[in-house]
Amino acid sequence: MKRRDLLTSAALAGALPAWAQPAGTMTLPEMDLHDPFIVTDTATKTYWLFTKNHPSFSGKKAIGVMAYRSRDLKHWSKAELVFQLPADSWANEGCWAPEVHRWRGKWYLFVTVHNESLPLAAPSPVPGQKTHRRSTVLAVAHQLGGPFTLVRDGEPVVSKDLMTLDGTLYVDTKGKPWMVYAHEWLQLRVGAFAAVPLDDELRATAPPRELFRGDASSAAKPQQGQGIIVTDGPQLYRTADGSLHMLWSSWGDDGYFQTLSRSKSGDLFGPWEHLPVWLAKGSGHGMLFRTLEERWMLVVHRPFKNARGKLYEVRELAGGFELVRQRTDLDLDPAPLPPSPA
């Protein structure tokens, strides 16, 4: 059926498909969001922004994930609940850092959940802190807007004895899937990034391997007087020349920040070199995406609390990326922050 016929049928039924609906009237300063993840759906010319559910925005009281839609990155629809954590799940909180990836004809949601009443056997090395179950789990849907349902009853991708968060899908040059994730500082004191190989059903096929720890970057500074180094929000990108880059966040001299690391070998296991801070002053947990015009853009949240989405123009260079400018024409930020000096 042609798009015009679909539109006519939908109109007669009283509902329009997502690509035919108005762009929306909300703007980023009005949209509560943390750890934003944007998917560009070229088929419907629609941007989907996924974030943890906030009942006051989605209208649904649930531990879950909601999504905003846009046609132009400036005007957004009201948030819709696309995933709800089942009441009988082992987890009872979280839905942090949702990411949605296309794999084998389906859409997979990677999301971090936890339960503080389920302690782990190994104590935390950080005085006054406790370890508990916290893991990235998967959910799946046949369409981008969900609804997503848990995969394998919500069992973690890696061992439940590991405190893991912010899992992301990485597909290597041979087409093999991996989950790259942050290993929580609560369990290590110095947080790390690790990768676990997956099969075609996105099950772990071997133990995870560490990529690097947060203190490998001179920008990441110890916190709370206890030697804590935070690592979160890993995202992996390969430039046209084959260079592999990881975008990630930590805490430094100027608060929460966004930075890049580059694999010298082009391989997931490095060795990794660590580049200067891109954005600070509470900016972080971002991701790069391509616009409908095939241009790179960065979305981050800022400030850390009461977070709002910020958009930056990005340029791909030989062997890397350059942060160009904040797109205040799109994010309407009343207090724009230029990129950090290189």
Automatic annotation (TrEMBL):
- InterPro entries referenced in this protein's UniProt entry, alphabetically: GH43_arabinanases, Glyco_hydro_43, Glyco_hydro_beta-prop_sf
Q: Which GO terms describe its molecular function?
A: hydrolase activity
The pathway to which it is assigned is:
Glycan metabolism; L-arabinan degradation
Q: Where is the signal peptide?
A: 1-20
- Keywords from the UniProt entry: Glycosidase, Hydrolase, Signal
**Hydrolase as UniProt keyword:** yes
SUPFAM superfamilies attached to this UniProt entry: Arabinanase/levansucrase/invertase
Has keyword Cell cycle?
no
Recorded family membership: Belongs to the glycosyl hydrolase 43 family.
**Which PANTHER family would you find in this protein's record?**
ARABINAN ENDO-1,5-ALPHA-L-ARABINOSIDASE, ARABINAN ENDO-1,5-ALPHA-L-ARABINOSIDASE A-RELATED
- Name of the protein this chain belongs to: Glycoside hydrolase family 43 protein
Q: Which organism is it from?
A: Pelomonas dachongensis
